[in-house]
Design a protein that fits this description.
Chains A, B: One of its GO terms (cellular component) is cytosol. Chains A, B: InterPro entries: Dimeric_a/b-barrel, Dyp_perox_C, Dyp_perox_N, Dyp_peroxidase, TAT_signal. Chains A, B: Belongs to the DyP-type peroxidase family. The structure is a homodimer of 408-residue chains. Chain A is of the alpha+beta class and 408 residues long. The first copy, chain A, has one domain. In chain A, 22% of the residues lie in helices and 18% in strands. In chain A, β9 and β10 form a beta hairpin. In chain A, α2 packs across α3. The radius of gyration of chain A is 22 Å and the shape is globular.
Chain lengths: 408, 408
């Protein structure tokens, strides 16, 4: 089975130069570094040579799992939730998923969609992935209510939630991600043309991380509070990653779940907190994400350590302590994005986190963590969940199949 | 005087590896290409080596001209128009511009803003530029109405316009652009904290082009209609570029003007037009942007050529014909972006073009072109200007000076 993380040169782009760099230039580092200053001082317009074409990189579409879960997060994502039209029945769902699968398979390989109205926009895949999720209503219509996993539906109500319909729920999720915002825009449009007869857009959320090539591979994301965010995330290479993330039984075997939460971050209020206060609220240093009891990002926090006057070094109310469980099965795999939309009503920011997590079982893994954070987490002072949705991500499919074929 | 197009390694990022590639690897192309397939088939998580750190590239801030005009367009831009508070007088404007200049000079070099609340977010400049523009009201308050260039104010009314206040006007423009969306977000927040005491946000518009490294340098942008857009754009290396773009007299010497127009593109209506019709409307082939009388993008259109039955090969109503002037001084320098915002009200797209043009004199250069397009341009069938604003971009400043110091 293909590894969804493997990147390959694009099938498309016949007329484009195929100088693919990436990791391949590593051995040339010293030579390149010597030449860099001189070359970079020249105007770009004079450069007759090719840049490294990150845009040609592709992520395989077909496989045991859907792409877009374990691949190193791309720079841009657009999440779209749709509501099925009232007359979209089982047969219509199957037709919709077949055409979505077909176009996703093409676009992710740099090939125009089947009825692509702007085929020239499809030639830069830029690690595009399209991941499809099902809400409870879609599963019910496709295979009856008994096919719904127990965790598929609204999360339990949390005291901190101020959920808005505009960012919550949905019958179908399209998660489109690439290192090029233009690629995402084109793919989204093609896919929404596929779904138009079957479903209406309920919400759209757009997020970003650092650009491809901005930072070294494996750098943990920072959020807009400036925090290193996601240090303890399981890695796809971990021995227990499969048990944490992939469902094992029924039509969802090889699939997973996704929790999407829109977390507003009050940057103006955060501004009034000093650096020490910010570090206490998280339990980590802002400079490098190290726990307050350590010196490096991946040092294990020492929750027993106390200060000279007997207080815990990592406060009881800190995020790092409250999000941690004694139970190693109570873990989730996070793959979130920042959002920074145009402010409304005189504000100077409308920002936050598109929290995205995958786990084999939402009730068993996500809910206990969120319950602890709901009860006590100092970060709640500056953050408010304003959107929430849960979807089942079916397994990947083989060529000739379609996403959801194990359900229908 | 430094060339604002020249890129240099960042001053910041002390702990980051300095493998700067870009054009420097050109001579290594063959070797890199040979190794590429093998390396790209490996999961990224296993790559212990550095990616090319595009994020470290910087554009000089100080110079005869402001940065952000002649630099090869970055992948992301955010344009923000602000209205001065009623009590923001000449002295306050000077204070505001000093602090804006200081923070822009820092951030663009990968250095935290003076009162940066999240300094760790400032270490990836990614060719960040901050360009400051003045509306008529700001110029009047700073130096009296006589300091206003005749062209500074609302454009003449065009018949095709359906302008919305939400996207029009403003006293101060901040144009923030970088190859990394996160860099733009952080810079915008820092700059808006600087202006908060002096001005309120009137509108914010966000746009994108292809990511850095997605395409070869010098590839002409396509818009969301799939058209190659900007083929005849003057290049900063052209002999007459200075005459077209830079103002020559008074406080604006070394400065320029910017026209910002938000052009809604009706993608659904465009979908109903076949490929031939699309090419006729523009007068260029969609495949490579060549004029309908040529084979390559930069071939000169032959407006005299006729078909076998005597019709012009490039139709009278086509954009390429209508936008062209006999008068070579009637040209503008375009530096636009695509936008693709979340659709509202059941639509599946909310997309278009952030038209941005620079010219020494709006009345003499921009207005005649727009008048011709207003009278007749088949593209008007699918596009609607919904926002419009004009700003004077003062010249650049020297270290110790500030943007606008020639006015105040």
């Amino acid at each position: 089975m293909t590894d969804p993380q493997a990147e390959q040169p694009a099938a498309g782009g016949l007329t484009r130069r195929r100088l693919l760099f990436g990791g391949a230039v590593a051995g040339l580092g010293a030579a390149a570094a010597i030449g860099a200053d001189a070359v970079l001082a020249r105007p770009r317009a004079d450069d007759a040579v090719a840049e490294p074409l990150n845009g040609s990189l592709t992520v395989p579409f077909y496989g045991a799992h859907q792409a877009g879960v374990t691949v190193a997060p791309q720079a841009h994502t657009t999440l779209i939730a749709l509501d099925l039209h009232p007359d979209t029945d089982r047969d219509a769902i199957r037709r919709m998923l077949r055409v979505l699968t077909d176009d996703a398979a093409r676009l992710t390989q740099g090939v125009a969609a089947l009825a692509d109205s702007e085929p020239e926009l499809a030639v830069v895949p830029a690690r595009l992935t399209v991941t499809v999720g099902f809400g409870a209503e879609l599963v019910s219509r496709a295979a009856g209510t008994e096919a719904r996993p127990a965790w598929l539906g609204a999360l339990p109500a949390f005291g901190i939630d101020r959920l808005e319909d505009a960012w919550s729920g949905g019958d179908l999720l399209l998660q489109v991600a690439a290192d090029d915002a233009f690629t995402v825009a084109h793919a989204v449009r093609m896919l929404l043309k596929d779904t138009r007869s079957f479903a209406a857009v309920r919400w759209t959320q757009t997020g970003f991380r650092r650009a491809y090539g901005s930072e070294n591979n494996g750098t943990t994301m920072r959020n807009l509070f400036g925090q290193v965010d996601g240090t303890v995330n399981p890695a796809p290479s971990d021995d227990d990653f499969g048990d944490l993330v992939w469902c094992r039984e029924g039509w969802l075997a090889g699939g997973t779940s996704v929790v999407v939460r829109r977390i507003h971050m009050d940057l103006d209020k955060w501004d009034r907190l000093d650096r020490g206060g910010r570090e206490q609220s998280v339990g980590r240093y802002l400079s490098n994400g190290a726990p307050l009891t350590g010196t490096a990002e991946h040092d294990e926090p020492d929750f027993e350590a106390t200060t000279a006057i007997g207080f815990p070094v990592i406060p009881e109310f800190s995020h790092v302590r409250r999000s941690r469980s004694e139970n190693t099965a109570e873990r989730i795999y996070r793959r979130g994005y920042n959002y920074d939309d145009a402010p409304t009503g005189g504000g100077i920011s409308n920002s936050g986190l598109l929290f995205v997590s995958h786990q084999a079982d939402v009730t068993r893994q996500f809910v206990p963590i969120q319950k602890r954070l709901d009860e006590l987490d100092l970060l709640n002072e500056w953050t408010v969940p304003i959107g929430s949705a849960v979807f089942a991500l079916p397994p990947g499919c083989a060529e000739g199949g379609y996403i959801g074929d194990t359900l229908l």
